[in-house]
Each structure stands twice: as C-alpha cells, then as structure tokens.
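Loading example: each entry is read as two labelled lines plus one structure line.
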Amino acid sequence: MNSQLTAEILSLSWEHLQMVLITIAIAIAVALPGGIVLARRPKARRVALSVASIAQTIPSLALFGFLVPLPFIGGIGPHTAIVALCLYALLPILRNTLLGITGVDQGVRESAVAMGMTERQVLWQVELPLAVPSIVAGLRIATVATIGTATIAAAIGGGGLGVFIFRGISMVDTPTVLAGALPAAMMAVVADEGLEWIERKLSPA
Amino acid sequence: MPPPPILEIRNLSCSFGSRTILRDVSLTVSEGETVVLLGRSGSGKTTLLKAVNGLVQPSAGAIHFEGKPSTEWDPIRLRRRMGYVIQDAGLFPHWTVEANVGLVPRLENWAPDKIAERVRFLLDAVGLAPAEFRHRYPRQLSGGQKQRVGIARALAADPPLLLFDEPFGALDPITRFELQRHFLELRNTVRKTALFVTHDVREALMLASRIALLKDGALDLLLPPREFLAARTPEATAFLASLQDRGSSSGSEAIG
C-alpha cells in the first residue's frame, strides 16, 4: 500500500468521523429533549413518532437528492449530508428515549410522586437514570446506521469514505471500493462495541 | 377527650367521566388509630387513599389534613407528611436500600449523618440488619424484605399519617402473617396513625382500630373489628362468610 493511499484513507476517515459525530451531536440535542417533552404528551408523541418513522422510510440516496436543490439546508457539500443523516438518526434516539421514560415501572413512578417528589425530581432522579440504558441503546443504533449511510454523502460532494466507494464503482475497481468500505465497517464495529460497553456500565445496578 | 382527627374526609365524591368511583364518603382518622378501608376490587378504596394524598382529585367534598383543607396544602408538602406503601413496594431499582429509605429526609434536606442514623434506626425497626442490608439493591431482596424497606421508607421523615395500599397483597401467606404481626408491634412502639387499604377481611380484623367497609364507592359500615364481626349488612355478611369458608378449609390461625 503506498503512502499516498494511506494518507487519503486517513483523511477521508477523519472527514467521515467528523460527519458522523456532528450528526449524532445534533440528533441527540434534538431527540433527547424532544423525547423528554413528548414522554408527558401521548398525542403529540404519536404524531412525532410517525413523522420520524416516515423520514426513516425515504431511501437515503433519494433524500440526498431531494435536499440538494433546497435553499439554506441544501446544496452541495457535507452540511447537506449532515441534514439528511440527522433525519435518519433522530428516530432511534427519540423512540428509545420515549421507551425508556414511559417504560419506568408504574409503581416506581407512583411511589416517587406519592412520596412528595416534584415532577422535575421524578424526571431527573428516577425516570432518566432508569431510561439511560434504553437511550444509549438508541444512540448505538443511530451511530452505527449513520456510519454506514454517511458513505452516500460522497454522492452530493459530502466527502468521507464514500468517495472511495463511488470512485471504485465508477472504475469497476474492487480494491478502491474496499478502501472505503473496510474502514467504514471497522468504524461501525468499534462504535457498536464501545457504546455497548457504555450501555452496560450505565445500566442501573 | 378523644384525640383530634389527623384526617377528616367530608362527603367526598370522585368521578372520572361518567364513572363514579366514590359517593359521598365521610370518615375521620384520629391520632394513633389504624382505619382499614375494606372492600372488593373496584369498591373505590384505592381511589379514596389516592385522594387523601392528592394523587386523585375529588369532584366534590373536602379533605382536611392536620386541620387544614387539602386545597390549601402545597401537594408536595402534603405528600411528604404522609408515608406511602404500595403492593410491590415501588422501591427505586437504581438506588440502594439506604438511598430508598432516606428519600424523604433527603428531599427535606436533612444533614447526611442524620439521614444515615435515621436509616439505621428504621432498618432495625423493620427487622433488617442495617450492616447487611444498607448497601443492597432492591433486586437483591425477597418480596417480604422489599416490603419491609417500603415501610421503613414510609416512616423515614416521621410523617403524622401513613397510607398503605394492600402492602402485603403479593406476599406468600407466611411472610404476610409475619409482616402483619410486625406491623402491629411497630404500631405499638411508634404509635403511628394509618389508613390501610385491603380486600382481605382477616387482615382488616387483625390490624384495624376501625374498619371502613366500602361498597360500590359508598361507605357501608364504619365499625371496630369486634362489632364488625356482628355486622349484618349484606356486604359485611358476604365478607364474613368468606372468612368462615377460609377458616374451615385452612383451619389455621385465630381471628381478631
């Protein structure tokens, strides 16, 4: 393997990772508070979950294509890709936050309220700690999926490891495809294992 | 002179939509007594208990706690002055026994060493060796032990009134009997006032100072256990008949 290729793999991997990290950060910032708010509102919850599920069903290549002509959020480049990736990452985090909070044993919740905890104390001291494993599990699903889907960002000039994949496809050159696919797969495995470890560590008792 | 009532329920009614759960219930609980709310499933006894600590809003009538109408109480303050024990204890699974028992004192900002001392005292009082149980998590406890922790938690901030919602309902008969006995001992030592929900007439006769029999959301009878045994309303007769059946089939412990 020549050093030029190695350098390119490293720099595209870094681009890829940045795209994933920014996406996940935004998705957490939206879905986590969103899930907390929606946990108390069953009607709004159904609407939000179906909207997020519908976003999930749009084929990713098509979604990237739809976004390109849009003003502000669209155009060519990584930011458009991040918008699309966020749409996909929202649902798992939102759904698992909701599941985690609403899945807290009713007797436990009732005791908390009946013992004189305020709504805020119930949320921070009881519901959220008990929801953490579920939230991290959602984060794990979102992260692994984002690492994979982010390879398509190259189609709209977003960069990342997809650059190798698209280049390899157009040149009908498998080693070039693998130069993108293997690092992406490794990244996904490491993220999966790492988050699973965190999930176990944070499981209450 | 009789002790002043800690809790006074006046003409309380509760409806959800078109369903009436409680009809015109009046009841007082005086200091030191245990009033048992006895009734079938759906008789409204749990709803009455929840109305007392504001988990359920009454549609008519009034509740006075320590002489003050519940509408004038801050619900958080009100609840912290009432211990609450439910069927499967409702312990917080992510907290140790010590953290569970110390909940209300912590919410009330007691000093940590004072909380630790109180927890030790209470675990002793409910028959759990503090050194052994303090650092355990609820999943490491048996059903009876969980319920003991639940009772210790309810007693933690020394509330003037304890609310029990079928606390021993899910336990095996032997453990239940042990805990009932312990409840009586505890009541004699700490002299607590309690409102206790059950569907078990034997438990009611064993623990009650007075039994409030609820039928379809209305108060059918309010009598001390001895007089309850002689009561002749259809609902009381039905409950007492279940007692005789059970007595003859198991032929075990004495009643009342």
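Chain B touches chain A at residues 53, 55, 76-80, 82, 84, 86-94, 103-104, 107, 137, 139, 153, 163 (CB under 8 Å).
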